[in-house]
Amino acid sequence: MKEKQMETLKRKVVNEPDLKKVFEYFFDHFGEDMDFIRSCTPIQHELLIQLLPILVRELLPPADYTRTLNLRLLHAPEYNFIHGAINVDKFYGGVIYFEDIQTGVISLCEFPPSGMTKFLRFNASVLPKPPSE
Known about the structure:
The protein has 133 residues and is α+β, with helices and mostly antiparallel strands. The protein has one domain. The protein is built from 4 helices and 6 strands. Strand 2 and strand 3 (81-88) form a beta hairpin. The longest helix has 14 residues, at 2-15. The termini are far apart. The mean pLDDT is 89.
């Protein structure tokens, strides 16, 4: 059953115009599923570690100081799926990413809550190196 739900989530990551619905679907079907959560393992995904600070700068207001990004990622290898939590200063959120299609969504909201949550869909394709001349 999780395979069908994961395929639905993947379609939403790529096609859903309302990115809030992507996270709602994730939390409704996976967020409290302890079997799923236990099946995930912590991961240090180098591409996401490098990319997420750049994406966070796109979402958050400019700061006069260096923002510290705290990131905890979990991997579900059978689904080529990574999810996790992001904390940057007083902003908290999450990340959902499918390795096989190199596409994901991040969310960030301010704490204490201001009622505003920011979302961003991203593609993390690695461009091939140009041939040397």
